[in-house]
Specification:
The complex is a heterodimer of chains A (335) and B (453). By secondary structure, chain A is of the alpha/beta class. Chain A has twelve helices and six strands. Chain A folds into two domains: 150 residues, Sufe protein. Chain: A, CATH 3.90.1010.10; 124 residues, 2-Layer Sandwich (GMP Synthetase, Chain A, domain 3). In chain A, helix 4 runs parallel beside helix 7. Chain B has 453 residues and is α/β, with parallel strands linked by helices. Chain B contains 14 helices and 19 strands. Classes of the chains: A alpha/beta (335), B alpha/beta (453).
Chain lengths: 335, 453
């Protein structure tokens, strides 16, 4: 699976100030939308699953509305039993006339869905989606086209509010697939060994492994990341994978006497560059202060280039802007 | 009458029982039902009505339309449609009102103000000046909140509402309370699922400045004893606002004896067009109220430094009004007056009791609100749930048989929560509905229940 290669915006060293009065959105929510947009833009959209097409065609071919509803009732009986404890707000489809819940299980890289509703007809519609979208990988689900319902030709069979409800069901399933997809990416990015330990150590508390460094992460981001981890049922990964990885690399390469990494991503929620690039953790804008002997004899530009070279991977994605202060020990009065 | 229907007339025999009429053939054919729909003895007083509503002569899913969603909106008689068509069409007089000297404008102004007078007479207001046109009842309540409320209510003042209110009689007060630091109190339901007057007495205090309650509930069907409530409010110097959306269309409403200081209603629920409604307020109150929307029509003089405002009702009617709609509303008032509001109320009472009785007999059906035998009676509508089946499932299957009802929270989430439910089904008949249509609905409901069981 290829990640989107966005242009490296080295020129943007100074993060733009956020517009006044801009409320920072919970990074988890915004991140998913951006991530979904990224992934959709990068690869072609998924072909509509044949199983779903067949089901819908069978449904549509019934001319009599009463018989169509009987069909939905039949689909509803095909649903697997739904665990009572999964009737949570997080699993609930918003904007539905009745109550609908949806959960996903990842097996062998493919998602199996389960759904429930207090309305039998809605349960039948949910069953359509469950049948049609089970057995796809998270990535395939995220890349389903947004006009999926129109493509299925279901619109004429459903009233406007049912159409809306059906769309919202689909969107929640996409969001859950994205959650799981990000979890997978998260696990791939984390490497085993010392770095992994450092990351795990940095995970909950904001403490740097190199002494005086600190990572400023908002409580919201922390909670959001932890919440996601809990939902996916994994042992908690670091809430700040990007900062962790930057710290690790900079420490290895530059042996800094001082390393401060401040995460300013929240202040940039919503502005152009921020959108479309944020990874799962919402880490996109950083202030970094470095004091290192390796900067001796290098001009400011050369120092910055050095840092960017070291952080090449992060700069590609998801970091949008890095504001750097690079000093030699002498300059920092630390010699 | 029957000749106007497309379907051939078929005869149906009936047996009269103590609780009403039962068709001998339990499953009437759709054809017979359509034909016989006009012949319901219970609707005798309003027999001319049905032919005035050609929209009812249609099929849905190859079954005759049985329109029982009148609490959401009513159908419009030819007389109203003609009045609006005449305004715009050939020989018409569409023109902006109040300014202008030319013939069309004069005719438009006359018709527009005549309509206001008709509304005033319809509710027995002292003068047309007490009728403020708004977009609907919701806007009328917002108008009171943002003018009378904003000017007269201060930190710590109390407003008494109820858990049964329509959202339009809750949210504007919540918004006002947030801005001005007011306290909102909510009357709950009595054992008979009407508003609890005993509790109301305890909620009204010397700090109460406004009591704003629904006259006839669109969910429970309960009827408020308005005079009693007015006395309780006035005793502490509070004003009374009544939401009359479900009363003005269905029974005689006389603001002289009602006791309220403000009432609101919407045209589209009383055979008038959408897009217009009204606030009735005592002239003395309206005269004290500051303007809300600013613009043309509501002014006297406009200077750069300051402007002066018109007298009520114009003060609250900024911009070009919904002229055709006002004329339509006037025609609706004429139409209903022609039927006689006492006759309309009698029809609603009988049909409502019939609907209630038939629903009661169905297993697993639970109807909300008081019984028709309650002291204040109840509206003709019936909101209910079927145990174990979701309301939207019921209404969806009913739709396949041509029966139109509403399901959902009916813009009354709080009362649903209070009753421990998320949503419900509501059947609400009006002047053109008949007992046979109620029969059709009940049959279809029974079938729907079987469908899901």
């Amino acid at each position: 699976m290829s990640m989107v290669v966005s242009s490296i915006n080295v020129a943007r060293l100074q993060p733009r100030a956020a517009p006044p009065g801009l409320k920072a959105r919970l990074p988890r929510v915004a991140a998913h939308r951006r991530q979904a947009a990224r992934v959709r833009c990068s690869a072609a959209t998924t072909e509509l699953p044949q199983s779903l097409k067949t089901l819908v065609q069978a449904f549509q071919s019934v001319p009599d509305p009463m018989a169509r509803y009987k069909q939905l009732l039949f689909f509803a009986t095909k649903l697997e039993p739904f665990p009572a404890e999964a009737h949570t707000e997080e699993n609930k489809v918003k904007g539905c006339v009745s109550q609908v819940w949806v959960i996903a299980d990842l097996t062998d890289g493919k998602l199996q869905w389960r759904a429930d509703s207090d309305s039998q007809l809605t349960k039948g519609l949910a069953a359509l989606l469950v049948q049609g979208m089970s057995g796809l990988t998270p990535d395939e689900i995220v890349r389903l086209p947004t006009d999926f319902i129109a493509q299925l030709g279901l619109q004429q069979s459903l009233t406007p509010s049912r159409n809306n409800g059906f769309l919202n069901m689909f969107k929640l399933m996409q969001k859950k697939a994205l959650d799981i997809y990000m979890q997978q990416q998260q696990q791939q990015q984390q490497q085993p060994g010392a770095a992994g330990d450092a990351a795990a150590g940095d995970g909950a508390a904001a403490s740097g492994s190199s002494g005086d460094g600190d990572v400023a992460v908002t409580a919201e981001q922390q909670q959001a990341s932890a919440g996601d981890a809990a939902a996916a049922g994994d042992s908690s990964p670091s809430g700040t994978p990007v900062a962790d990885s930057m710290r690790r690399k900079l420490t290895e390469e530059l042996q800094p006497l001082r390393l401060v990494i401040n995460d300013n991503s929240e202040k940039h929620a919503g502005h152009g560059g921020y959108r479309g690039k944020a990874g799962y953790s919402g880490e996109t804008h950083f202030d970094v202060e470095l004091v290192s002997a390796r900067f001796e004899g290098l001009t400011s530009i050369k120092r910055h280039r050095l840092v960017f070279k070291i952080l090449e991977q992060e700069m590609q994605n998801p970091v949008h802007a890095l504001s750097l202060v690079t000093k030699t020990p002498a300059e920092a009065n630390m010699a | 009458m029957a000749a106007l229907l497309d379907h051939p007339v078929a005869s149906t025999s009936y047996t009269w029982t103590a609780s009403g009429r039962r068709a001998n053939s339990r499953r009437q054919s759709a054809v017979a039902r359509a034909a016989a729909v006009e012949e319901a003895p219970l609707a005798a007083a309003l027999r001319p009505t049905r032919t005035d509503f050609p929209i009812l002569r249609q099929s849905v899913n190859e079954r005759p339309l049985v329109y029982l969603d009148n609490a959401a909106t009513s159908q419009k008689p030819l007389q109203v449609l003609r009045a609006m068509d005449e305004y715009y069409g050939e020989g018409g007089y569409n023109s902006n009102v109040h300014r202008g000297v030319h013939a069309l404008s004069a005719r438009a102004t006359t018709a527009y103000e005549d309509a206001r007078a008709k509304v005033a007479r319809f509710i027995n207001a002292s003068s047309p000046q007490e009728i403020v046109y708004t977009r609907n009842a919701t806007e009328a309540i917002n108008l009171v909140a943002n003018t009378w409320g904003a000017a007269n209510l201060h930190q710590g003042d109390e407003i008494v509402l109820s858990v049964a209110e329509h959202h339009s009689n809750i949210v504007p007060w919540q918004l006002l309370a947030q801005r001005q630091g007011l306290v909102l109190k909510f009357v709950e339901l009595s054992g008979t699922e009407e508003l609890d007057l005993a509790q109301l007495a305890t909620l009204i205090t010397p700090r109460t400045r406004l009591v704003s309650l629904v006259h006839v509930s669109n969910m429970l069907g309960c009827v408020l004893p308005a005079q009693r409530v007015a006395e309780m409010a006035h005793a502490v110097g509070a004003k009374l606002l009544l939401d009359c959306c479900q009363s003005v269309p269905n029974m005689p409403v006389d603001v002289q004896s009602l006791g309220a200081d403000f009432i609101v209603a919407s045209s589209h629920k009383m055979c008038g067009p959408t897009g217009i409604g009204f606030l009735w307020g005592r002239l003395s109150l309206l005269e004290e109220m500051p303007p809300w929307m600013g613009g043309g029509e509501m002014i006297q003089d406009v200077r750069l430094e300051a402007s002066t405002y018109a007298e009520p009702p114009s003060r609250f009617e900024a911009g070009t009004p919904a002229i055709a709609e006002a004329i339509g509303l006037g025609a609706a008032c004429d139409y209903l007056t022609g039927l006689g509001m006492q006759q309309v109320a009698a029809h609603e009472r009988e049909l409502g009791a019939y609907l209630y009785a038939k629903l009661r007999r169905i297993d697993r059906v639970r109807i909300y609100g008081p019984s028709p035998e309650a002291a204040q009676g109840r509206a003709a509508l019936a909101t209910f749930n079927v145990e174990g089946i979701h309301p939207t499932d019921i209404s969806t299957i009913l739709d396949t048989t041509g029966v139109a009802v509403r399901s959902g929270h009916l813009c009354t989430q709080p009362v649903h929560r209070h009753l421990g439910i998320s949503s419900s089904v509501r059947a609400s008949p009006y002047i053109y509905n008949t007992a046979l249509e109620v029969d059709a609905f009940v049959d279809a409901l029974t079938d729907s229940i079987k469908f899901f069981t």
